[in-house]
Design goal:
The protein has about 475 residues and is an alpha/beta fold. It has helices at about 15-30, 50-70, 80-85, 90-95, 110-120, 170-175, 180-195, 210-220, 230-240, 260-265, 285-290, 295-310, 325-340, 370-390, and strands spanning about 5-10, 30-35, 40-45, 75-80, 100, 125, 130, 135, 145, 150-155, 155-160, 175-180, 200, 245-250, 275, 315-320, 345-350, 395-405, 415, 420-425, 435-445, 450-460, 470. The strands form seven sheets. A six-stranded parallel beta sheet has the order 2-1-3-4-5-6, with helices on both faces. Strands 18-19-20-22-21 form a five-stranded mixed beta barrel. Helix 9 runs parallel beside helix 10 (about 260-265) and helix 10 runs parallel beside helix 12. The protein binds S-adenosyl-L-homocysteine, iron/sulfur cluster and FE3-S4 cluster (F3S).
Length: about 475
């Protein structure tokens, strides 16, 4: 297939990883990636529907793209991702000028769908689940065109079996399926052989990794081997030669066990960073959300984690204004957040998603003005602890991996510490992305650190040549 394409990503890391595959498939089929819409023949919007503003953004963008499409014969618009999965043929009903609507389980079909619609006109193709003909389509097995060369996302699990009352993800990503450990290990080894030194393991609920694998073995009557669990996975991935940093997202506090924390602490490659989604500090709200833990239990695990990894950075997700959240509930969230001493927080305003339990609790929706006020109060608490955490790092020498020059000022480079802290620094001569270096931290701000380059520790591998890697 000839032509040029742009892929725009609206969602989370999984969504970004799917974009890499969409891009890889189009590129393998002969198309060329470009940055500019004006050059493109195909624009793919990889959508998210986690909150309402994500929906609005898509339909706003599609309005603009109608003009883009009309400007040149043969242009195509593809809508992929979670919002397609949710709205199905509703996308083309609202925006009939869209050429291809494809769901989260149809990524492998990208190139065929673009081709088919060139001949036959608009197509909507949404599979209900990832299993087809008894075969699980693990998207990681698809080619990927990666944006960076030194780090990579690796899917370890797809879907989610939890029932968090606010969340649309299980409806659009299907049931939870773990990817076999050997496949994961093989992909990581292949990435490492191509110069990747940092991997981020992706799943919606990584602590339950492997449970379904043992069930499948039992069903088939094969030898009942204990299922590989997340702790083992961390150790195995951390042992792959060439991998210097392992990250993962997201664990679920209800399933967090000490063995995972021990595996983190005992595996040198696993970074000292835990993204640990709290959602609320109030036990009453946590129970309404069906989260399966209490504020106290959450904090206890954090004490264990910090005992095992004293220099652990902890980040979190919090929802403000869940239906029925009272002032007392919110104060409890402030208390737990203060006690947890977070390095940073992603705070979200509750957004009702049709089809979820929380969307039906209309009579207890919280007044938007109250929610806005709570959002600000929480931000103050979190920014205070974030700044203190950053100030404590001033004077220390830290290992960073270089990301590259910053967009605003090319003389300023950015890098990430093992704790995933963003560091700004100005090297005398440019450093390549993927270089490991040590920097001395000289200044702290709530959202970044300022450093001075001390030493280059390792250059990125020269083996990185071909952007298309297939697992
Ligand atoms: N599986 C991951 C996160 C999935 S979504 C986990 O369980 O941690 C990412 C974040 O979006 C969630 O942690 C939650 O804080 C937020 N979120 C999900 N649904 C939401 C909704 N309806 N309104 C507001 N925030 C929401
Ligand atoms: Fe959503 Fe809960 Fe699953 Fe996370 S664990 S994806 S919040 S249902
Ligand atoms: Fe991710 Fe958004 Fe889908 S957060 S899983 S892209 S709904």
């Amino acid at each position: 297939m000839t032509g040029k394409y742009v892929v725009r990503t609206f969602g989370c890391q999984m969504n970004e990883h799917d974009s890499e595959r969409i891009s890889g498939l189009l590129q393998n089929d002969g198309m060329e990636a470009v940055d500019d819409d004006s050059e493109a023949d195909v624009i793919v919007l990889n959508t998210c529907c986690i909150r309402e503003n994500a929906d609005n953004k898509l339909y706003g963008t599609l309005g603009h793209l109608k003009t883009w499409k009309a400007a040149r014969e043969g242009r195509q618009i593809v809508v992929a991702g979670c919002l397609s999965q949710k709205d199905k043929d509703g996308v083309q009903k609202r925006a009939p000028w869209v050429d291809v609507v494809m769901g989260t389980h149809n990524v492998h079909r990208t190139a065929e769908l673009v081709r088919e619609s060139r001949v036959h006109g608009p197509i909507t193709e949404i599979y209900d689940e990832a299993v087809n003909d008894d075969h699980v389509l693990f998207p990681s097995a698809l080619p990927a065109r990666r944006e960076t060369t030194y780090n990579a996302w690796v899917t370890i699990q797809i879907g989610c079996d939890n029932t968090c009352a606010y969340c649309i993800v299980p409806a659009v990503r299907g049931k939870e399926i773990s990817r076999p450990l050997d496949d994961i290990e093989r992909e990581v080894a292949e990435l490492a052989a191509n110069g990747v030194t940092e991997v981020t393991l992706l799943g919606q609920n990584v602590n339950s990794y492997g449970r379904d694998l043992s069930l499948a073995e039992r069903r088939e009557g094969a030898d009942v081997r204990p299922s590989p669990r997340f702790a083992e996975l961390l150790r195995r991935v951390g042992a792959v030669e060439g991998i210097r940093r392992v990250r993962y997202t997201s664990p679920h506090p209800k399933d967090m066990r000490i063995d995972v924390l021990e595996a983190m602490a005992q595996t040198p490659a696993v970074c000292e960073h835990l993204h640990y989604p709290l959602q609320s500090g109030s036990d009453r709200v946590l129970s309404l959300m069906h989260r399966g833990y209490t504020g106290a239990r959450y904090l206890e695990r954090l004490v264990d984690a910090r005992r095992l990894m004293p220099d652990l950075a902890v980040t979190t997700d919090i929802i403000v204004g869940f239906p029925g959240e009272t002032e007392d509930d919110f104060v409890r969230t402030l208390e737990v957040a203060a006690a947890a001493d977070f390095d940073s927080t992603y705070t979200f305003i509750f957004s009702p998603r049709e089809g979820t339990e929380a969307a039906t609790m209309v009579e207890s929706f919280v007044d938007p003005a109250v929610v806005a006020d709570r959002f600000e109060r929480l931000r103050t608490v979190v920014e205070r602890s974030a700044l203190l955490k950053h100030q404590a790092r001033v004077g220390r020498t830290e290992e960073i991996v270089v990301e590259g020059p910053s967009k605003r000022d090319p003389s300023v480079f950015t890098g990430r510490t093992r704790q995933n802290k963003l560091v700004h620094f100005s090297p005398v001569s440019p450093l390549r992305a993927g270089t490991y270096a040590s920097v001395e931290i000289v200044r702290a701000a709530p959202h970044f650190l300022q450093g001075e380059l001390r030493e280059v520790l390792a250059e990125p591998s020269h083996r990185i040549r071909i952007p298309v890697a297939s697992a």
